[in-house]
Amino acid sequence: xxxxxxxxxxxxxxxxxxxxxxxxxxxxxxxxxxxxxxxxxxxxxxxxxxxxxxxxxxxxxxxxxxxxxxxxxxxxxxxxxxxxxxxxxxxxxxxxxxxxxxxxxxxxxxxxxxxxxxxxxxxxxxxxxxxxxxxxxxxxxxxxxxxxxxxxxxxxxxxxxxxxxxxxxxxxxxxxxxxxxxxxxxxxxxxxxxxxxxxxxxxxxxxxxxxxxxxxxxxxxxxxxxxxxxxxxxxxxxxxxxxxxxxxxxxxxxxxxxxxxxxxxxxxxxxxxxxxxxxxxxxxxxxxxxxxxxxxxxxxx
Length: 301
Ligand code: CP
Ligand code: NVA
Hints:
The chain is α/β, with parallel strands linked by helices.
């Protein structure tokens, strides 16, 4: 599960339906009993690590958390060999690393499912939680407009892809030089059009948020972009999600952000701690979508 670009929409809806059921149930079934899941982190994480670790335990499974630097991978063992060996021990591999090609290579050589827990290109687990949150607030996302404002990064790509699978209208407002990958945009737009939606990219943030019922932003400096802070803060300043930008969207607009947030940069505290914020539910929903995904991949039929 590397990007959700190549999965059928029905399977994604099944995962989201199961996530809703898990959220509503105090007692969870244990389809992961006797199963282990490796969680490899080559980059820092709060939400992804805790939500996967807690979710796997609640499903009866055993999480094996590995910091990349503590593995032989960090001393030059190849991805191929790591994939082959881990496949002998665990039932699935979850990995966070900057290089998307590394995750593709791991998936190519592993005999067990591989889940992308964030690369520089995609953050599909986040995309699932984003859409779960939109469904909770508005029902069926088909035809609903979401605006992404800021850096055309991994979270932008995943919102486009998952939104497209559910027939949403996704409009990204990003500055020149920081636009989303045109190939991802074209693929997402083609998927969206099959489901009655579309994906569009503009440069004006106010144009992007017109009629939007969700405004989504993310950090201006992603993991892997360190060192570009000054330049990025100058370029992205007009893209801040503040109350004035929220007021330019639909009257019932909600704010989304994957977190961690930076008050006064990509978002203001008045928005992310304010009445229009769905950001804390969005963070909580990581737990349910990932548990649903693991159940879908590993649970008995
Ligand atoms: N949103 C997200 O992936 O958060 P972490 O980096 O804390 O896992
Ligand atoms: N775009 C951010 C998301 C963090 C959850 C990053 O890649 O660092």
